[in-house]
């Protein structure tokens, strides 16, 4: 029985080796997408806290803005992967 | 504490922290204790109390103006917090703010007991709780204590007050009624508190508050020498005392004090306890309890930045500020010196 499957398995192995399920470009795109998602999640809390602080004291606008976009660096770092790919 | 994916706690707590830092500090108090009532009012006009002072300035003056403005501002601040908050955070804050319902009921009862005029009582009410204006007006219109008990029969205070009313009629003192109100408040506070790590810490804080309240009640009863059984006025939910032992403890102040200093609060209160033993005065001890509670809430606020505790610590701090300014204004009016007043303040 095993002898019967063997040629099939080598055929499958050959095929996956030649073309991966996810191409390099797609993997890079995925990493950027997931990083952007994480950045958005991080900014959610910071943004609403910043809005609260700005509502009380408008001079905090610049600080609030900077802190809110800090997680955006995650996306920029993930973007590096695109060029490395 | 974040509910349903919203970022409401972050928003509320950032705002509350900003307000917290805008409260008066050491330096402001040092200036305030050297001012007369009119100067204090002017000083407040330049602070966050501006709207209230301006709105009430044409009708009142001097200490009355300060007092009305303080109460109005406090109610407004707390209603603001409720406006911002949503979900579970709202629920927890609203529960805690029912404290002011309890305060209002007690004030009305005391007013009737002392035959104060409607306006006098009205000026002391803080409309930050759950009672709407109509209910409060009905309470103010009541002339008999029995009437108040009847009006409140549908609220969370109803059952306790009805039971306590008999005691009141027998003994003729307000203590049973006031304690029934306190009890109803603290019982609903701990009810169905969902247990998680944050809720656990919050519960510890509430337990500390109940312990302090029990200690205070027991000391007061022991001091007043009234023929009352402290166990009847015991509030369930604390960890320090049991209902069975409080009677024995209240008969001797020294035992009560040693019980407190051996407890987990001993370290925080050590200064106050030695004062209590030395000076024989309850006032400084009660003040120490207040500031210990405030410190505890603050610590919790830093441990769990996104829980309800920073809000509670703001509520406590704001209450202390209002009490402090009132004490300063009244003290100056009565001709006390700056140093004497400074001793009366709870400053962190």
TrEMBL record, chain A:
Main location group: membrane
Query: Topology relative to the membrane, per the entry?
Result: Multi-pass membrane protein
Domain V-ATPase proteolipid subunit C-like: start-end pairs: 27-83
Looking up SUPFAM superfamilies in the UniProt record yields: F1F0 ATP synthase subunit C (SSF81333)
Which InterPro entries is this protein grouped with?
ATPase_proteolipid_c-like_dom (IPR002379), F/V-ATP_Csub_sf (IPR035921)
One GO CC term on file: proton-transporting two-sector ATPase complex, proton-transporting domain
Subcellular location per UniProt equals:
Membrane
- Its transmembrane ranges are 21-41, 61-84
Q: What is a single Pfam family found in this protein's UniProt entry?
A: ATP-synt_C
This protein's UniProt keywords: Membrane, Transmembrane, Transmembrane helix
Write out the GO MF terms: proton transmembrane transporter activity
Q: What is this protein called?
A: A-type ATP synthase subunit K
**What organism, scientifically named, is this protein from?**
Haloferax elongans ATCC BAA-1513
What is the taxonomic lineage of the source species? Archaea, Methanobacteriati, Methanobacteriota, Stenosarchaea group, Halobacteria
From TrEMBL, chain B:
Main localization category = membrane
- Pfam families named in the record: vATP-synt_AC39
* GO CC entries: plasma membrane; proton-transporting V-type ATPase, V0 domain
Subcellular location, record wording: Cell membrane
Q: Which domain of life, per UniProt?
A: Archaea
Q: Which GO terms describe its molecular function?
A: ATP binding; hydrolase activity; proton-transporting ATP synthase activity, rotational mechanism; proton-transporting ATPase activity, rotational mechanism
UniProt entry keywords in alphabetical sequence: ATP synthesis, Cell membrane, Hydrogen ion transport, Hydrolase, Ion transport, Membrane, Transport
Q: How does it sit in the membrane?
A: Peripheral membrane protein
The biological processes this protein is annotated with in GO are: proton motive force-driven plasma membrane ATP synthesis
Q: Subunit structure, per the record?
A: Has multiple subunits with at least A(3), B(3), C, D, E, F, H, I and proteolipid K(x).
Family according to the record: Belongs to the V-ATPase V0D/AC39 subunit family.
Query: Which HAMAP family does the record match to this protein?
Result: ATP_synth_C_arch
Q: What does this protein do?
A: Component of the A-type ATP synthase that produces ATP from ADP in the presence of a proton gradient across the membrane.
Q: What is this protein called?
A: A-type ATP synthase subunit C
Organism of origin is Haloferax elongans ATCC BAA-1513
